[in-house]
Amino acid sequence: xxxxxxxxxxxxxxxDLQYSWKxxxxxxxxxxxxxxxxxxxxxxxxxxxxxxxxxxLEFLRRRYECVGVxxxxxxxxxxxxxxxxxxxxxxxxRTFSLGQRFDVVTCLFSAIGHLESERDLAKTFARFADxxxxxxxxxxxxxxxxxxxxxxHVHLRTEETRDLTLVRMAYSEVRGHRTMIRYYHLVGIxxxxxxxxxxxxxxxxxxxxxxxxxxxxxxxxxxxLARGFTRDRGLLVAGKPLRERGVVRPRS
Length: 252
Ligand SMILES: C[S@@+](CC[C@H](N)C(=O)[O-])C[C@H]1O[C@@H](n2cnc3c(N)ncnc32)[C@H](O)[C@@H]1O
Fold this sequence. Notes:
This protein has 252 residues and is an alpha/beta fold. It is 25% helix and 34% strand.
């Protein structure tokens, strides 16, 4: 039987296996290096927005006081098991308000690509800026850059353990500044059978100069790094000045 799925609901418990190829430890190390280079606030508090199952926080919590935010209860359920004692809040990145400021705010693995529009992005950047201390730094990994996106690409990935086999095939198309990726998943569990799930994921692509402009409007000083964590995505590093300037507030 075919079922439509929501990526971070139905597949949350398989997320870590699906991305077991990703080197979160190395990414956390590089993030710390970027904070050392661009941060000016000097403290050790770290907010990871769209933290998912908490893979970056697992390493960062060793040296920082960490808080995580994510919109998905299922992803946070996995994160809670991984990160006992860490404050994890279910909230939307466009509207969250924790009543606390941090030295670092991160939003990684293209979570902002799930937003609907640049307007949403402006609201999200304003939230990031509001949650930073003066001299703090935001590090945001965007979705694939518009200049790098290709239509018609077929992608296959399989992961296997003794208890679980995951197969994911994806077909991507580009429509303006959106990718439309059709995902077809097979989840096989010995003794239980195989489930087939499909989903269409619409990804928001934004040019680096637009990202920089949106960060500037939120009162941050942006630097776009061509070398990010994942090919063709780059990384936005945006510092909050030690003295706050006038900020353009997006209308809610
Ligand atoms: C690709 S995962 C990245 C998770 C994690 N940062 C990582 O590197 O593994 C994207 C995450 O963004 C979260 N997300 C999507 N839209 C969101 C929103 N509007 N507000 C907060 N979280 C959101 C999803 O629930 C999911 O956990």
